[in-house]
Amino acid sequence: MNIASLIDHCLLKPTATIAEVDQLCAEATANKFRAVGVLPLFVKRTKELLKDSAVKTATIVGFPFGHSVIEAKLAETVLAIVDGADEIELVINLSALKNVDWQYLAKEINTIMPVIKTKGRAIKVILETGLLNDTEIKTCCDVYGAAGVDMIKTSSGYAATIVSVDTVKLLRRHLADAVKINAGGGINNYETVKELLEAGADNISTENSIEIVKLAAAF
Predict the structure, then answer these.
(1) What is the pTM of this model?
(2) Residue 1 pLDDT > 80, yes or no?
(3) Residue 138: pLDDT above 70?
(4) How is the chain split into domains, by residue range?
(5) Span 3-217: which CATH code?
């Protein structure tokens, strides 16, 4: 198994520097990671640094808790696409979810989706599953599956929750096969990566990519 090709190499901390982004892209290119995940500020630079590689450029919208209004998220999405992002990672509005306002969440995704699809980009929806119960996760699968998203991501990593194998299994049971699962949140060793992939995850997001690849090579 080529673990590197299934890893999104991420740098989403609020103090990220240009030098760190440059290093991130160099590491991604050298290891042939699936994608690089960066803050919106660095999308243009990342796209330029990765132009001669197959590594995708991903960025977040509504980070970290998804509280921005729909119009603001739409504007963020448009700017990310203009700057060259291949994948948009949309953080759902957690407050709307906890208020059981599924109509709002459906409106949010159905407003943003057409812009992304018209431009031939991919959309990854971040749920923050560690803050949700099973019923909420199942309903998310229904709403975002119906919308036709490309991928569901378990966590942005910001909420300090660790993705579980059971959560990935739950998502896989309730999502159509066409919707991929990106496992993220506290992943720092190869054993966990292997378990998550076996549970149904299609790829992994982590800031510990280099260490995981090294550990994988030892097996």
Answers:
(1) 0.93
(2) no
(3) yes
(4) 3-217
(5) 3.20.20.70
